[in-house]
Amino acid sequence: MHIRTVGVIGAGVMGTGVAQNLAQAGLHVLLLDLSTDILQQARKEIFHNIRLAQLLKRGAGAKEDTATIIDRITFTTEYTPLQDADFVIENATEKWEVKKPIYEQLDTVCPAHCIFAANTSAISITRIASATRRPGNVLGIHFMNPVPMKPTVEMIRGFHTSEEALTSAGQLLTAMGKKWVQVQDMPGFVSNRVLMLTINEAIYLLQDQVASAEDVDRVFKECFGHTMGPLETADLIGLDTILYSVEVLYESFNDSKYRPCPLLKKMVDAGLYGRKNGQGFYTYK
Amino acid sequence: MEATRAKIRAFLAKFFQHADLKDSDDIFALGFVNSLFAMQLVLFIESEFRVTIEDDDLDINNFRSIDAMAQLIERKTTSHLAM
Prior knowledge:
The complex is a heterodimer.
Chain A: E1 5-9, H1 13-24, E2 28-32, H2 36-56, H3 66-70, E3 73-76, E4 87-90, H4 96-109, E5 115-118, H5 125-129, E6 138-142, E7 152-157, H6 163-175, E8 179-184, H7 191-207, H8 213-223, H9 230-237, H10 239-253, H11 262-269
Parallel strand pairs in A: 1-2, 1-4, 2-3, 4-5, 5-6, 7-8
Antiparallel strand pairs in A: 6-7
Helix pairs in contact in A: 1-2, 7-9, 7-10
Chain B: H1 2-13, H2 27-30, H3 37-49, H4 66-82
């Protein structure tokens, strides 16, 4: 299948990154979110990040105009334009109650050949597929943040996902300059089943006053050679997203080892979301 | 041109507190900031000097030193006046 137009649902951190990456790859993008305010903010964000990419590009080379790239993105609050979509990447909040109605809508509006990829870090792809009448055309692509800079993604095969859908997703990812690791559908996949538990436990360390945030991160960076510590990573991902993900793991496995740390809940209730609003385990200007 | 340099110097002083920065020093080579900082410089120059940095000017070499930035601003403001 030749993919020309890609719908991107959700203009948060991941959605804007995906839209930017697709536009830079020359694809036509339909970026959908609930309000024009969110979309305006997303446009600003994407404009800024494309310029940054231009700035970091080595040598003169044949640069494409920032305007040309951003003009490939149509910002919309309506589902109707998605009737032209060959592929949809959904990046809505990590809550089943939020995602389910989105897939029901998409299933009604999008053409039969259109493939749906859930950019989720924890929710079951098989469960998402059950909300549609095209379970063979539903798979998971777990992009990493920041999307345009991260070279590899997890590709998740749901119970009914067809070989053709996986091949098409691979073609799209190749166009975006990405490689992938294919894994089976089980909550949290590989990455987040380990990462979310690690971050949650690191927050327990802080709560139990075993070490400061800086020191927890130093152990990972200086002893293990990780680029970032778990608490810095949590700030980058967003503490609200971490909490949703841990809750999804807890609900999916019904295993108490996934219980969210009370300090994490408290910080999210207090509005400390990490980098995106300036305050998490660290303060950002 | 000197006023331009002074404004850039004042902005950089916030990030290079302990460095005695010369106008020709390559701020990226000094290692106190990474290349992402260049975008902050772009936004600072656009708002402070009311110029638009076009795609063609989005070259890290234009932001390497106080001299390079002053020249870029000079070029942008004079071409603006000529229009």
